[in-house]
Design a protein that fits this description.
six-stranded mixed β-sheet; 6 strands; alpha+beta; ph1033 like fold
């Protein structure tokens, strides 16, 4: 299993909206960055990801699971980009902020710390465990 981080503006698509989609999940569409596209192409069913609110909050607020692998994105008129489908798994008991990640030496190499604008990012096993610990998950 691999781990990921999905970034979204809470005003556009929030964690509460993701949870309301239930077991059918939600297509993670609208990605228009080739690095993020390649990250989504590498995803497999069952992979987990952090759901991260950008904007004013800048925090990991939940965990999603990939339930649909990479496929064409119908919102892309040029046909260059795709999407995956994710469903909500659980709330992060305590949101883990970008500031928290930046001050934690165990997360100094995390993509979130270095490439803050990348919308879909890989997360290492060690980073996953550390962010979960910081957020109150075992």
């Amino acid at each position: 299993m691999a781990y990921w981080l999905f970034k979204t503006e809470a005003e556009t698509f929030s964690w509460d909206m993701q949870k309301k989609r239930g077991a059918k999940g939600e297509p993670w569409s609208g990605v228009r960055n080739h690095t993020a596209k390649n990250n989504m192409k590498a995803m497999k069913k069952g992979d987990l990801g952090f759901f991260y609110h950008t904007g004013n909050e800048k925090a990991v607020v939940g965990i999603v699971q990939v339930i649909g692998e990479y496929r064409p994105d119908p919102t892309d008129e040029k046909g260059q980009f795709g999407l995956v489908v994710v469903k909500a798994v659980k709330d992060m008991p305590k949101p883990v902020t970008l500031a928290d990640c930046k001050t934690n030496p165990k997360l100094k190499a995390m993509a979130l710390v270095h490439w803050a604008r990348l919308s879909v990012q890989p997360v290492t096993d060690a980073e996953w465990k550390e962010v979960c610990r910081m957020g109150g998950l075992k």
